[in-house]
Design brief:
The protein is α+β, with helices and mostly antiparallel strands and 648 residues long.
């Protein structure tokens, strides 16, 4: 009975403490109020999905020591519900642990749960399985879309409610949708549905908000009554004009820049963006001098491990690194920009005392010899667990219930092509990059928006293999319903190709189970034609001594003279490499995936041309990142910095 009474008192005490906490908008004094006192947040964006769990504390502590009193984070729906109804909140996806960690460190949280987040993340965080309904209208009142959203939010938001500030947790505000004014739909019923959905799960006290670019027409479609409207803009922008736009939607209340861009995103084939520390400091100081609230996007960018990068339209995929030229680097290193921002914040609030956690050490493990294994075509029995699917016309990824990675399409030449004959894709039907071979000889590459036709030769009945790579779904604008694979028919000369055999490839599973270890390398053909060559796997190992203190440490891997592909270490998918196009050359390798008790396996899928014919080839582990190499420009339009238009 005593124990029961004690527990009851503790619960009542906890309830009392929670009930005394409040976070509100004071429209009379144009500010937020926290527990009845005027409050202004100085926040930074961090995406737990781009940082290994083991490093969350280090990154959050560095943000706290910079003088931030809050963080902002997105919740990518597709990161937690890859398969409908199957939810994953464990390990690197343990959102509740992340929120509790921020709370324990002393950081408030601005939560952005979507359902759409953009974030340069695959499909803006929406799960690919939504495209099972081919004509679904995403981010609208489409009943199928709303049904899926309701189920997801019915799972997620009740998990978040105990973390609300009013409940004793760190979450002070929650965003509904994201930059909806930049989307073509302008569906007010959809936004009202979301508002009511969030209220039903989170209660009436939590501050719900929207974010849009600083243009009147954005806020006209992006904001509705009952959701507090905020804006976003970068350094060098007209701050007065931007906040005037917010004031047209919210005549009173706090000024808020929800995304102050201290860096910017990269694309393959474009220069690495750098935003000067001086420019950031001047604009940040101006914002804070206005007593405005600000969130710096990104304070640490992190990494698009695996296949999680997004793309913009016209089709421009983002690289594996999401460094963003942020105050903390992709690997969490302290930068000049970090300390410049810290000095600005010092002018407006007290900085926590004590040392800033240092940059984590990096180690150069050196060269690793790689040996050639099988081509993708030769390894189909290993890679395609589900087996071949016959179809008259090509199938999309979604038809195969595959979200990411690679699919192999196989057919035969219907006629003999003694002279080079055009193999072409009408309607820009390769999404996103296709590696074509005829009878085991590489014939060329088809690429979305840029290379729509190649010439092939061969006899009637020759085997045609087309390996299609999903390079990341569009994450912003009107084309986020981005289907992958061969999305239209292929034509040889004037004859449409039919009778396909399609293989859904489970490459990650094959790599993680080390299924290539027993295979024999294919014979090296020293008379191989000029690149591209066949997509081929390579493998190497290296040992980290367990007797050396402080090892393993973080590192970077680069692939000198390799062209384009995917790399795994100990079964962990680091992401894509494409040094031949740039600007990213090295990939970040966190120590959490390295071992000192067993050899470390390196697996590479080179899609075009490896420096291994003839003779051995290597990858190199180095202590220095390279994210700003000279690029081979793809000629496509680049998204302008800090601009939030819907790119049609």
């Amino acid at each position: 009975m005593f124990v029961l009474r004690t527990l009851l008192l503790l619960l009542l005490c906890e309830y009392s403490l929670g009930a005394s906490r409040s976070f509100t908008i004071d429209y009379q004094n144009d500010c937020f109020k926290k527990d009845g006192e005027e409050f202004r947040y100085i926040s930074g964006s961090i995406h737990y999905s781009r940082i290994p769990r083991a490093y969350w504390k280090d990154r959050l502590l560095k943000m706290y020591m910079a003088g931030l009193n809050a963080i902002q984070t997105y919740i990518p729906w597709n990161y937690h519900e890859k398969i409908p109804g199957q939810y994953n909140f464990s390990g690197d996806r343990d959102l509740e642990y992340f929120l509790q960690l921020a709370h324990d460190i002393g950081l408030l949280v601005i939560l952005r749960p979507g359902p759409y987040i953009c974030a340069e993340w695959d499909m803006g965080g929406l799960p690919a399985w939504l495209l099972n309904k081919k004509d679904i209208v995403l981010r609208s009142s489409d009943p199928d879309y709303l049904g899926a959203v309701d189920k997801w939010m019915g799972k997620l938001l009740p998990m978040m409610r105990p973390f609300l500030y009013q409940s004793g947790g760190p979450i002070i505000t929650v965003q509904v949708e994201n930059e909806y004014g930049s989307y073509f739909a302008c569906d007010y019923n959809y936004m009202r549905h979301l508002k009511n959905l969030f209220r039903s799960h989170l209660g009436e006290e939590v501050v719900l908000f929207t974010t849009d670019g600083p243009k009147v027409h954005f806020l006209q479609c992006g904001s509705i009554q009952g959701l507090y409207a905020t804006v976003d803009f970068g350094p060098g922008s007209n701050m007065t004009a931007a906040f005037d736009v917010q004031r047209q939607a919210e005549p009173h209340g706090p000024l808020v820049n929800s995304e102050f861009y201290v860096g910017w995103l990269d694309h393959w084939g474009k220069q690495h963006y750098v935003v000067s520390s001086t420019k950031v400091a001047i604009s940040l100081n101006a914002i804070l001098a206005q007593k405005a609230n600000v969130n710096m996007y990104m304070f640490i960018g992190g990494t698009n491990f695996g296949y999680w990068n997004g793309a913009n339209s016209p089709y421009l995929p983002q690289p594996t690194s999401y460094d963003y030229d942020a105050p903390l680097t992709e690997a969490g290193d302290l930068t000049e920009k970090y300390f410049v921002i810290r000095e600005v914040i010092k002018m407006y609030r007290t900085i926590p005392e004590g040392p800033v956690p240092p940059t984590t050490p990096k180690f150069a493990y050196g060269l690793v010899k790689m040996k050639k294994l099988q081509t993708v075509s030769d390894a189909l029995e290993i890679l395609s667990f589900s087996g071949p699917v016959k179809s008259t016309y090509p199938l999309k990824f979604i038809d195969l219930h595959q979200a990411f990675g690679y699919v192999l399409y196989r057919t035969k030449l219907p006629v003999t092509c003694t002279t080079p004959t055009s193999l072409w894709v009408p309607l820009d039907g390769v999404h996103d990059r296709a590696y074509v071979s005829v009878d085991g000889v590489a014939a060329g590459i088809l690429e979305r928006n840029t290379v729509l036709s190649i010439n092939v030769t061969g006899k009637a009945g020759s085997q045609v293999d087309i390996l299609v790579e999903n390079m990341g779904r569009i994450n912003y604008g009107s084309q986020i319903n981005d289907f992958k694979g061969l999305v239209s028919n292929l034509t040889l000369g004037t004859e449409m190709l039919t009778n396909w055999t399609v293989y859904s490839l489970s490459i990650d599973a094959a790599v993680s189970h080390n299924l290539f270890s027993a295979t024999k390398p294919t014979l090296t053909n020293t008379h191989q034609p000029a690149p591209p060559s066949l997509p081929t796997f390579y493998k190497g190992t290296f040992i980290i001594p367990d007797g050396i203190p402080d090892l393993p440490q973080d590192t970077y891997v680069k692939l000198p003279n390799w062209t384009k592909g995917q790399i795994w270490i100990n079964g962990f998918n680091l992401g894509r490499y494409w040094p031949s196009r740039g600007p990213q050359v090295t990939l970040f390798v966190p120590t959490t995936i390295l071992s000192t008790v067993a050899p470390n396996n390196v697996t590479v899928l080179e899609l075009e041309n490896a420096p291994c014919t003839p003779g051995p080839c290597t990858v190199e582990f180095t202590a220095t990142p390279i994210l700003n190499a000279t690029v081979k420009d793809d000629g496509m339009r680049h998204r302008e910095p800090f601009i939030k238009d819907d790119l049609l």
